[in-house]
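Example record used in the benchmark description.
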Amino acid sequence: MLIKFNLNGIDYEMDVRGDRRLLDFLRDDMHLTGAKEGCGEGECGACTVIVDRLAVNSCLIFVGQMDGAEIITIEGLANDGKLDVLQEAFVRNSAIQCGYCTPGMVMSAKALLMRNPCPTDMEIREAISGNICRCSGYTQIVAAVKDAAKQMRNAAITNCSYSD
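Model output (structure tokens):
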């Protein structure tokens, strides 16, 4: 089937097999390997990407559903070789252990920050609740998301109704 979509800021029109998982399409056809195959059942979050500003498990949706969609992968966050504010915060806050869950975790957090520049700890924990990390215990991850939110607010001169 012929679909049109935007992937990491680039418009595409491609003939695809509509019943193929988005995860396989991204990894095998587009050579974007940041999204990982974890469980293949939507339980671990390792394959999380952003579709139309929402975090989704790319192992659970078909590429045929992407007609007209805007898709962002972990590879699409960096700009001109410079890491995204959230990626920098993950590094700065030691929120990266083995790294397997990191792309999915970052994408879930990024989707949250796209919608909510002032998330509470509970909102951050809820946003990343679909991502399993066996190494960190989540404390550094929540700190990284809060750090990035603060950096993004400072850059945009946005204030929250609570103090950080």
